[in-house]
Design goal:
- Belongs to the heparin-binding growth factors family.
- InterPro entries: Doublecortin_dom, Doublecortin_dom_sf, Fibroblast_GF_fam, IL1/FGF, Inner_ear_hair_cell_LOXHD, PLAT/LH2_dom, PLAT/LH2_dom_sf.
- It holds the Pfam family FGF.
- It comes from Tegillarca granosa.
- This is Lipoxygenase homology domain-containing protein 1.
- This protein is mainly beta.
- 11% of the residues lie in helices and 37% in strands.
- The protein is built from 10 helices and 77 strands.
- Strand 36 and strand 37 form a beta hairpin.
- The protein starts with 17 loop residues before the first strand and ends with a strand.
């Protein structure tokens, strides 16, 4: 039964009118509102709406109770004739009120009571003012006689009434019209008292629009028609109302006041012009920004402008760029911007990001002109935006000023931040906050400590001030910090916000950690006003009862509470709430759902139309997105409100006429925003059943209400069908009592990754997708939890923590532990990953796993993953993550491979970092998980200008798509400038970055997502051999032999002789592993290791030292030594390779892996000979360069093109020191001159990369360097010469 419906025993009897008296909670001076509850009040929500208009409460009337506050009234039947009730803005409790003490009519003058002496003194002061005014205008009125004024009559000379408009100080939207009449004979204090009754606060002062004080009745009569009332606070400027600031009411010669002519026509004309403006504008504006002429007034920071209108905001719009001359002192910079359809502009926010050498900025004025309507808005500023000037703010807000219309005041909000009194609750991170209200938001503001040294410490109460255009009623705030490293967490107790000087404050309670290692791991939180926070808890509880209606693919109807008809999509693709129950266009389907209470709805009849809120109106969009997402908020009366996720505090709204209403409003829970949600057919007669109860046997039967005698029956296979009662138990249903409760928050590290904690199986019930997971351990787990991630063709499971029941130890050496998890959403399993989650940082985690066996409990499919590896920071490669592919008999599986990842740190000052760097690789087959880069090929990682190479072992991802790289360093000096990342597997993928990962530079990000810039195939990767049992090895061996047999019979191998000549320098040889890949017209040879030289035991060696004894003929000794050395100086190593026939050879790629103490290598040339042919066709590849990470361009791999054979003979006759220059005379050799501008800044060791583009493509990146390490390149005015070879 609906408790909020006005049910009556007789549908034909006329409703009985009741007269009720409603009091204001905790207010003994408020006269009760007399309300007649009759036929015009159809439902309880309608009455609450009416009471909200009659009883002045800050958030409207939300609950009604008896005077004692114990009995809540929730429907019309609970009201009695001549009953007395108390109204409250709180939904769940009402304070008691003794109605016998209610005096009715508050005396707002809290000071001394009015006295005759004070009134006389006031009149004498006014008389003195008028006398001085008459003397000052003596020349004008010299011909007229002024009668003596009776000081007992304050209105002598003002014989006719005057109508004035009085507005509240700081809030021009609250105003009242007052008629001053000499017949009433009121004093000035009596008029203030009457105004206090109207505005419901004690009025102490009156001002004109320009801030001049009104001190008496005479000033009111001879002053302007618009006044401002206030309490004890000072005047708040409210210009732009269209009245002359010094104007006075005019009088005719007969003494009659001149009335404002055509005031109604002026208002109508003003509204018409406003409508025309909004119709014509396209959102194109011309913006002019004036910077002060003070020498230090300019800025080189990035300036942004945000524009707010009644339909939304433009978002930050970038003005100019940091490299130009914009915003220099005295500049008048002009920009053309597009702001979209934001509605009528009411405020702007301009500021900068505080970057650059001189970020401080003194802005004088901003002017905006609409290109279409030519409307011009002026925003005076004249304020500093600098951390070391004024109030240390780096942004300013200004309200729009239009003649004849009210403007919003600029207020200072006092923000008190209370840090918890827990151990280590404080933080040194930068804290940011955004306030949200009825009139927009403040934007992201840093709670800047200024000169204070200690803020956000344990138990501290820190006060900050945020200046912004009035937000109206505050709704929520978002607060967070940028500290992600250990010890940067923060326990926030609560925040209070109020207008500076006001008494009422808004409480935002938190009581949680903002710490990646505590609670749910969040460092940003959304807080709501305390009363809204309680509502959220109740709405979550209510949603548990109703969420079955909002499951995916469920079809529903939304019936408006005011029209009692459903929302429909009309033929013109418009929406209203006037659909009949049988209208097919009123059915919506839940097309998708997100975590929590967020859903997307599409119309069943028009499936490409999605309900949405855009520009503060309910509309339809052709594609789902942020504007089509709604937060389902279930109320206590089971009605539902749909709040836009994109536009907070905007709801689906339909008026009593069924038309679309304004999605915003003061009472956000008005009936026009509430809907009854029914599943399709739930309101049809055919879907209604009579429940026949059989308490003695404990079951019920469901009989059709439309077709009596027809029951719901169930077949043995679970299908439902209509049947009659034959006494068989197929129509008996045993009800089960289900206890609903809120889901408890998961206090765990992996909450953000949607982890699922599983325990050992307790029963034998198997749902679809249930798997048994058996884990065998070789060494006992220490200081960590184990998580498994399962990947399939439909997605991945996320980290599943393998937990144990209380009192049982897991992962002990020799144990075989069993777990159960549901993997239905994964699909067909392709790989798994084991991860260790450290419990503390004091002791390193460690565990050795043998194998993992997974069994589908329904299909009995079994998968075995052989590991025999350490997951430890102290063993093997120091990794705590291991992956294995799923292998099925007769099916191709993914391979386990090693990715070679190289990070290149920039040369900028301070580019190096000591922080812990991590990376996540993404490809066609999933991701690698978060891998910490620990083991580098260099002694000290991530140094300035250094290339660090790491190996990541993972199941092949296929073609790489992107990567995420970041670090945990948020302290000073822990930033990192990353130039690029190079990953090698079957191809070389380059991920360009060229940005800082630093909390104090650029956009302050310490994590970045990089996309593949370019990919080049280099060689076929060698898969990692995995440890398997003997049976698996036997099967593997047979498969390999079969493949080799097929290859032997189908494609015979060819023999290629590779001759590699090393240079003559004493350090030209290398200890690294050298490889070569030969490319021909029939494909490539793949990566071939050159390990067994025919001519030398030690391949790619250089020359050797000789011990010679002196002879009589020294000349002969010298000649002999010279010839011997020349024979050895160019050591030639010969290798034989057996590969498929490549046809004509196009190029080769040769290089080494950089391992060993002396990894650098000087390669002179390479000759490739195909031995099968009689002519022994030769291919000659000259090189003459270093392959060394520390020399030249630091490359260890080079691509070479063939030259003519006679070129080799010619070059052998050239001295070695001149041979390299000889190569530059060949095709692809260039000389390059670079001239640096005179006004350029010194390079200071910066690296310059050169790329050449041609008709056949582009060259690789060539680093320009000097042969002399002490030479300074790219200095101002210099011309630097380089020689480059481009293949």
């Amino acid at each position: 039964m609906d408790t909020h419906s006005n049910l009556r025993s007789s549908q034909t009897a006329p409703p009985e009118a009741k007269t009720c008296y409603f009091y204001k909670e905790n207010d003994y001076y408020y006269k009760p509102a007399k309300v007649v509850v009759g036929s015009q009040v159809k439902s309880w929500p309608v009455l609450l709406t009416e009471l909200s208009k009659r009883v002045p409460l800050s958030h409207g009337v939300r609950s009604v109770a008896t005077p004692g506050g114990h009995d809540m009234i929730s429907n019309l039947d609970g009201l009695t004739h001549d009953g007395h009730y108390v109204c409250s803005t709180n939904r769940h409790r009402v304070k008691s009120l003794n109605i016998d003490r209610v005096q009715g009519g508050r005396n707002w003058n809290f000071g001394r009571p009015p006295s005759g002496q004070r009134a006389l003194n006031l009149l004498l002061r006014e008389e003195a003012e008028n006398r001085s005014l008459r003397h000052s205008n003596f020349d004008t009125y010299s011909t007229r006689t002024t009668p003596h004024r009776d000081v007992t009559d304050p209105y002598i000379g003002n014989k006719h009434p005057k109508k004035i408009t009085v507005m509240k100080n700081g809030d021009p939207t609250e105003r009242h019209v007052i008629l001053l009449n000499r017949r009433t004979g009121q004093t000035f204090e009596q008029i203030l008292s009457d105004m206090s009754e109207m505005f419901h606060f004690a009025i102490r002062k009156l001002y004109t629009m320009d801030g001049k004080r009104i001190r008496g009745c005479n000033s009111m009569f001879k002053g302007p028609d618009v006044l401002v009332c206030s309490g004890w606070e000072g005047f708040k400027k409210m210009g732009g109302l269209g009245y002359s600031q010094g104007s006075r009411a005019g009088f005719s010669r007969a003494g009659r006041p001149t009335q404002s002519r055509g005031s109604n026509d002026i208002i109508a004309s003003r509204l018409k012009k406003r409508k025309e403006r909004l119709t014509k504008t396209r959102g194109m504006w011309h913006v002019t920004v004036n910077t002060n002429s003070l020498k230090s007034a300019g800025t080189n920071a990035q300036v942004t402008l945000t524009i707010y209108g009644h339909r939304g905001n433009s978002g930050p719009i970038t003005l100019g760029n940091m490299e130009g001359n914009d915003f220099d002192p005295g500049n008048k910079d002009e920009f053309n911007i597009s702001i979209g359809n934001v509605g009528e502009i009411y405020k702007i926010r301009i500021g900068h990001d505080n970057t650059g050498d001189n970020p401080g900025w003194l802005c004088d004025e901003i002017r905006m002109k609409d290109v279409d309507t030519h409307e011009e808005l002026v925003f005076p500023c004249h304020r500093w935006m600098a951390r070391d000037e004024d109030d240390s703010e780096i942004c300013r807000e200004m309200a729009a000023v239009r003649r004849g219309e009210p403007i919003l005041p600029v207020l200072r909000y006092e923000v008190q931040v209370i840090t918890g009194n827990l151990w280590n609750a404080g933080t040194e991170a930068n804290v940011y906050m955004t306030l949200y209200g009825d009139r927009g938001d403040t934007g992201v503001r840093q709670l800047y400590p200024g000169k204070r040294k200690s803020v956000f410490e344990k138990g501290n109460v820190d006060t900050f001030y945020i200046e912004a255009v009035s937000l109206g009623h505050l709704r929520r705030l978002i607060i967070g910090h940028d500290g992600t490293s250990a010890g940067q967490g923060w326990f926030l107790e609560k925040i209070t916000v109020k207008e500076q000087g006001a008494r009422d404050e808004n409480l935002f309670y938190c009581g949680k950690w903002l710490d990646e290692g505590e609670d749910d791991g969040k460092i940003v939180r959304e807080l709501k006003v305390q009363e809204e926070y309680i509502d959220d808890i109740i709405e979550k509880r209510n949603f548990e009862f109703e969420k079955w209606k909002f499951e995916k693919d469920c079809q529903i109807k939304l019936f408006s509470s005011v029209t009692e008809k459903a929302i429909r999509v009309k033929n013109g693709m418009t929406v209203d709430a006037l659909a009949n129950p049988d209208d097919k266009a009123n059915v919506f389907v839940v097309v998708s759902k997100r975590a929590g209470m967020i859903r997307v709805f599409a119309n069943v009849l028009h499936p490409n139309n999605y309900l949405a809120i855009d520009n503060s109106r309910v509309t339809l969009l052709s594609k789902p997105g942020a504007y089509t997402e709604f937060r389902v908020r279930v109320q206590d009366d089971k009605t539902v409100m749909f709040e836009s996720v994109k536009n907070a505090l905007q709801f689906l709204t339909f008026t009593e006429s069924g038309k679309i209403g304004d999605t915003r409003g003061i009472l956000d829970k008005e009936p026009i925003r509430r809907f009854h949600v029914y599943c399709k057919g739930i309101r049809d007669d055919m879907a209604q059943f009579i429940i026949e109860k059989h308490p003695e046997k404990g079951y019920v039967s469901l009989q059709s209400n439309l077709q009596r005698g027809l029951y719901i029956g169930m077949k043995p296979d679970g299908r439902i069908w209509p049947t009659v009662d034959t006494g068989v138990n197929n129509i008996w249903f045993f009800p089960e009592v289900v206890e609903y409760q809120l889901e408890q928050e998961v206090q765990d590290y992996i909450k953000d990754k949607e982890d699922t904690q599983v325990q050992q199986p307790l029963d034998s019930s198997h749902a679809d997708g249930d798997w048994s997971i058996q884990v065998s351990s070789l060494e006992t787990l220490e200081n960590a939890d184990v998580a498994i991630v399962v990947y399939g063709d439909k997605g991945n499971s996320g980290p599943i923590i393998l937990g144990a029941p209380p009192g049982k130890s897991l992962f002990v050496a020799g144990n075989n532990d069993e777990f159960r998890a549901n993997l239905a959403k994964v699909g067909k399993i392709s790989k798994i990953r084991l991860e260790l989650i450290p419990k503390s940082y004091k002791k390193l985690p460690s565990w050795k796993v043998k194998e993992v066996k997974m069994t589908d409990l329904n299909t009995k499919e079994s998968l075995t993953f052989y590991f025999h590896r350490w997951l430890s920071r102290e063993e093997e490669d120091l990794e705590i993550m291991r992956e294995k592919p799923a292998k099925r008999a007769g099916e191709e599986s993914l391979s386990l491979t090693k990715y070679k990842l190289t990070t290149i740190t920039g040369n900028e000052q301070g580019s190096d970092t000591n922080a812990e760097v991590y990376v996540i690789l993404y490809g066609e087959h999933g991701d690698t998980g978060r891998r910490v880069l620990i083991k580098s090929n260099k002694g000290k990682k991530f140094q300035c200008g250094q290339d660090d190479m790491f190996e990541i072992e993972a199941v092949s991802l296929g073609k790489l798509q992107k990567l995420i790289i970041g670090h945990d360093g948020t302290g000073a000096g822990e930033g990192w400038y990353l130039e690029k990342v190079i990953i090698k597997e079957t191809e070389e993928s380059v991920f360009q970055c060229d940005k800082w990962l630093d909390t104090s530079k650029e956009d302050r990000k310490i994590e970045r997502t990089l996309l593949v810039k370019e990919s080049v195939q280099i060689f076929t990767a060698e898969p990692i051999l995995e440890e398997e049992d003997e049976q698996a090895k036997s099967v593997k061996k047979k498969e390999v032999e079969a493949v080799q047999k097929i290859q032997t019979t189908k494609e015979p191998l060819s023999v290629y002789q590779v001759e590699v000549k090393t240079g003559s320098d004493a350090n030209a040889n290398t200890n690294s592993n050298v490889y070569i890949c030969i490319y021909g017209e029939n494909g490539d040879s793949g990566k071939q290791t050159l390990s067994s030289s025919i001519t030398s035991r030690k391949p790619v060696s250089s020359w050797c030292y000789l011990k010679l004894s002196q002879s009589d003929n020294s000349t002969n000794i010298y000649w002999y030594v010279e010839q011997y050395i020349l024979h050895l100086i160019f050591q030639t190593d010969v290798f034989k390779l057996e590969v498929k026939d490549l046809g004509k050879i196009d190029k080769i790629v040769i290089g080494h892996d950089g391992k060993g103490a002396d990894s650098g290598w000087y390669l002179d040339d390479v000759t490739v000979i195909k031995k099968e042919r009689e002519d022994n066709q030769k291919y000659y590849f000259p090189c003459a360069r270093w392959l060394d990470e520390n020399v030249g361009d630091k490359k260890t791999e080079v691509e070479l093109l063939p030259k003519k054979e006679e070129e080799k003979s010619r070059l052998e006759n050239i001295p070695f020191d001149k041979r390299k220059k000889s190569y530059f005379t060949e095709e692809g050799a260039y000389k390059l001159w670079v001239k640096t501008a005179e006004d350029s800044k010194p390079a200071n060791g910066g690296k310059v990369v050169f790329t050449l583009y041609g008709s056949k493509g582009k060259s690789e990146d060539i680093t320009l360097f000097s042969a002399n390490p002490t030479a300074k390149l790219f200095e101002p005015g210099n011309i630097d010469e380089f020689e480059v070879t481009v293949i």
